[in-house]
Design brief:
globular; mainly beta; 120 residues; 4-stranded antiparallel sheet; 7-stranded mixed sheet; single chain
Length: 120
């Protein structure tokens, strides 16, 4: 079992920066692919960035070059550095821990979400 708690959201002007943190409790943090997802009002939840247990990263096209995901396995924490923020980045941001196992099985854990609002 993994519990995830996000922090760092808030209100920022367009062009500004924020850093989100997600602290995980429970065992096995290092084996999970950690990710950030977001959901804007009236839209589906979408992947923003992920980092695998091996450290490889993946980004949505809309945030490439502006956002950076990183993890500190010693602190059981994953971060999302968001620069050059735009109004369209406004959403609730969720932290995710995912583990694939067996044949096609997936285990997902979610945080409660943190609001990011970018004013234009």
């Amino acid at each position: 079992q993994v519990q995830l708690v996000e922090s760092g959201g808030g209100l920022v002007q367009a062009g500004g920066s924020l850093r989100l943190s997600c602290a995980a409790s429970g065992s096995g943090f290092g084996i999970y692919t950690m990710g950030w997802y977001r959901q804007a009002p009236g839209k589906q939840r979408e992947m923003v960035a992920t980092t695998s247990s091996g450290g490889s990263t993946n980004y949505a096209d809309s945030v490439k070059g502006r956002f950076t995901v990183s993890r500190d396995n010693a602190k059981n924490t994953v971060y999302l550095q968001m620069n050059s923020l735009r109004a369209e980045d406004t959403a609730v941001y969720y932290c995710n821990a995912r583990r694939l196992y067996g044949l096609g099985n997936r285990q997902d854990y979610w945080g409660q979400g943190t609001q990011v609002t970018v004013s234009s």
